[in-house]
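Annex B. Sample input.
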Amino acid sequence: MKARNIVIVLFVVGLLNLLAYLFVIRVDMTDDKHYSLSEASIELLRKTEASIDITLFLQGDLNAGFERLQRATKETIEEMSVHSDIHFSTEDLQSSYSKEEAERMGMRPIVIHEREQDGKTAQTTIYPYALIQYKGKKAVVALLKNTRGLSGEENLNASIEQMEFAFMEALSLLLQTETPRIAIIEGHGEPDDTHTYDLMTALSRYFQVDRGQISGIDSIVDAHILDDYRAILILAPQTPFSDQERFIIDQYLMRGGSILWAIDGIRLSEEVLQQEGFTPIIPLDLGLSEMFFRYGIRINPALVQDIQCLPIPVNVSSDPEQPNLQPMPWTYAPLLLTSQGSPITRNMGQVMSTFVSPIEAVGGEDGIEKRVLLATSTASCLTATPGKVDLNDMNPDIEQFKYQYIPIAVSLEGVFPSAYAHRMMPDGIASDEKIRKQSTPTRQIVIASGSIVINETQKGQILPMGYDRYSGMQFSNRDMIVNCLLWLTDSEGLINLREKDITLRLLNDKRAHDERLTVQLISTISPIAILALVGGVVMIIRKRKYQKR
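Annex B, continued. Sample output.
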């Protein structure tokens, strides 16, 4: 009888093991679905036709924070392996690649300085990167997001939240069989190649970037000239658009095209400002107001000032022969706040800007979702046009800064009405179609400043977008514009992975230090006390039992 029971038990255990091998069941019991991949990620992984090799370089003597990042990376790769054939390994980057090779691949070391208990400072060099290889192609995944203004713990938390997006972004690049095309529209005094070099460099990782005009003098233009492009960029134009150009852009949007607008609301001369110390400001009329109104927004022709701003060097010396340059707040260069409610700007630092205008939502269009991406701080004011900007006015009246969170950039998503729904087709358009009065679902982003996409130069060297040469600080302009284009062209919803919210139960270091002795005593004495109590109870029970006998 016993032998038969043993055989039955062994059979059941073997059957359960076989079923567990054949049918993998994974249940994520965490509130925030910490260990679950999104459907977009799963679909992308299922598209792979060969094995994926992932090498993790985050190794060495890691502190608790980077151990957590390492563990989160391994957990993400493990979850990915459920849906695709993944070969995972760990390597010491310094033993596999030279320093020059690593830097060419975009992997730069991070030096961590930590104070030990004896007061000495320990220095550790780490490489928080992973390398994905697929069908002979390689892509580097930066595991650590270092956002200016966030603490170390906050940066680690943000990095873990965006872990899935970082891997899926790299994998999507490897799976691309054809590079998507985007176009920068020219012909209206836009910034030249030098001042958009960093923008072109950043976008060329993901897209084929073309530049060109969409109309000419006395020419016939094909209404479908932009149809081959996933998105178009209109960056800081200074002269008005013709009716012909407006029609082509409008109908491109109606056919499902996406647009990034970086439009100045006012006109001023920075050259005159530097030479004379002041310059007039007037509204900049580009002929786009009616289109924007139909799409649900308006760029007001005013100039924003903000207490949260960049400093500029100002000569405070009264002696012209002995200048004394001191940093003074330049309220016309606001440091814009990024929205945490959009996948475009989530976990992103401030964005640098100069001479920005406010954006206002107008109309009650059904089906158009509007999200603020960039806004001013809690202390802002507006300068109406016509007016002037004066370098001598470096001490503004604080009481005038009574506005807060003025929108500077917005995303628009939905079905848009055409600005030409009740108008004739302009001359000079070659088209065999009727005017489309309504768009298919599509997206737009409007930024009320061209300065955000422009890089400066210094002594012939091109500086990155968002780099302030006076303070040496790097802001998030580059990441923001790249994310804007990824969102505009994202048909698979991968950019939405940046919205993933993971709550980390972090250790309170101060409390742990203060209560260390108490915890040690409890953890040491409690087991002994429990054992003594249980032993005493057992002895009493046994004593009573045998006394009765």
